[in-house]
TrEMBL record:
The keyword Hydrolase applies. It comes from the Bacteria. It comes from Microlunatus kandeliicorticis. InterPro entries: AB_hydrolase_fold, Dienelactn_hydro, Dienelactone_hydrolase-like. Residues 19-230 form the Dienelactone hydrolase domain. This is Carboxymethylenebutenolidase. The keyword Hydrolase applies.
Length: 238
């Protein structure tokens, strides 16, 4: 985690204000930024830790709190009922309105004077939302971890032109082999990289028992950071 706590700010959304957290890199110099999009559990300690990991690499990381209209920020923990509570929250928000929220957050980040380029990274529910955002904006890079909404968003594939990295576990019980093959066929093009992990379940990077796979998580993170370094480099970092 970085020494400094993230800055809390808001992004205008008509008459509303979208809360967000901005994780700053160690050196306050101009550089690239990323919008990081949550899982169904909201902006949890896990999501904040991933934002901090990226900030430590030199990125400015904006993390919107998409459940703000519900009066919620996150569902913490990994015990009984957490998955059901997260799913219930995700089902209560309007998808198109949330895409607009994500676009507003991306615009706010990209137009900050110290930001020299902007990408998007999302996990699970956020992996699908990141893909949708990439279809309506022009990020410099897209990273999607096992995007759970992707099967319903494949019609947007022609609009997603950013260099893209997608991660999938080969033992994913939510996005099974046939679904993954359909996703692969729809999104395949020059500039798209698809990485798979033998034996890994859905949400293998997160902390949920029965889903987390340490080996797959570490391998995917190495691939993610190398991909970002190539496609959205931080000045001064080799």
């Amino acid at each position: 985690m970085p020494d400094a706590a993230p800055e809390r700010l808001t992004v205008p959304r008509g008459a509303e204000e979208l809360p967000a957290r901005l994780f700053a890199p160690p050196q306050p110099v101009p550089g690239p930024g990323l919008v990081l999009i949550q899982e169904i559990f909201g902006v949890t300690d896990y999501i904040a830790s991933r934002a901090a990991d990226l900030a430590a690499l030199g990125y400015r990381v904006l993390v919107p709190e998409f459940y703000f209209r519900l009066g919620e920020t996150s569902v913490e923990g990994t015990g009984e009922g957490v998955l059901e509570r997260g799913m219930a929250l995700a089902q209560r928000i309007d998808w198109e309105q949330t895409v607009g929220d994500a676009a507003a957050a991306f615009d706010a980040l990209r137009h900050r004077p110290e930001v020299t380029g902007a990408g998007v990274i999302g996990f699970c529910w956020g992996g699908g939302l990141a893909f949708n955002l990439a279809a309506v904006r022009d990020p410099d890079v897209l990273v999607s971890y096992y995007g759970s909404a992707l099967p319903d968003l494949l019609h947007l594939a022609p609009e997603v032109t950013a260099p893209s990295l997608h991660h999938f576990g080969l033992a994913d019980s939510y996005l099974g082999p046939e679904v993954q093959e359909r996703i692969r066929a729809a999104i395949a093009r020059p500039g798209v990289t698809i990485e798979t992990y033998q034996g890994a379940e859905h949400a293998f990077d997160g902390p949920m028992p029965g889903l987390h796979d340490e080996q797959a998580s570490m391998a995917a993170w190495r691939t993610t950071t190398a991909f970002l370094a190539a496609q959205l480099p931080v000045p001064g970092r080799g």
